[in-house]
């Protein structure tokens, strides 16, 4: 993904160098350096509509990785059976934004920006469990490898933020995000498809382990599902509110 974004930026630079004068152009292509440093690669296209208003569209993508801010996540997802050390997460989002500038030049100065965001959070959630079997009259506990629930949570949200954008030199644009946030709704499905000969008692224990999750204000519903190929799956559906903070960031771009 990093190579894709770098390639896009070089293509944009090559196009701009051979295009019309960059000063006073109606378009800006840019990327958020703060997010890129966290491997959440992104690209934005902004176009001026008039002296004070612009529209932009952006796309961001973070490849699957270990869970960031693990301690904070544990406070919101309370379940001792979840293996947070092997929890994996990926994210992508498409954002549509309008900007209202208060400066004297197009796409320059202080701005207020309402936006709508459509995101997908992909996760791998390992869940530990133990079940008992009876061998020769003895009850023996069995602890298999964690059951990994995989899937995605889709969100739709709206919000606003403010910042300041300036044109430096003749080509470079500096965009400083100050603070903002968004709020909306989410829904998702996670599934663990058990091997064919998995005993029912093991499936019951996996479901019991998942049912111990307290992730309020999200609502979680878990059930055991019979698949067409004879296997069974643990399926967890989630829905609830979705919120985020659009914190400080430094974005650079080229205007044409």
* Main sheet characteristics: 8 strands, antiparallel, barrel
Low-pLDDT ranges: 16-22
Mean pLDDT comes to 90
Number of strands: 12
Distance between the termini: 25 Å
Radius of gyration: 24 Å
Task: Name the strands of the widest sheet in spatial order.
Answer: 1-2-3-4-5-8-9-12
Helices and strands: which structural class? alpha+beta
Helix content: 10-25%
Order of SSEs: HEHEEHEEEEEEHEEE
Main attributes?
256 residues; two-stranded antiparallel sheet; eight-stranded antiparallel barrel; 4 helices; 12 strands
Describe this structure in words.
This protein has 256 residues and is α+β, with helices and mostly antiparallel strands. It has one domain. Helix content is 16%, strand content 56%. A hairpin with a 7-residue loop joins strand 4 (88-101) and strand 5. The longest helix has 16 residues, at 2-17.
Task: Outline the fold blueprint.
Layout: H1 2-17, E1 27-32, H2 33-37, E2 41-48, E3 53-66, H3 70-76, E4 88-101, E5 109-127, E6 131-135, E7 138-142, E8 147-168, E9 172-193, H4 200-211, E10 219-226, E11 232-245, E12 249-255
Antiparallel strand pairs: 1-2, 1-12, 2-3, 3-4, 4-5, 5-8, 6-7, 8-9, 9-11, 9-12, 10-11
In brief:
The protein is α+β, with helices and mostly antiparallel strands.
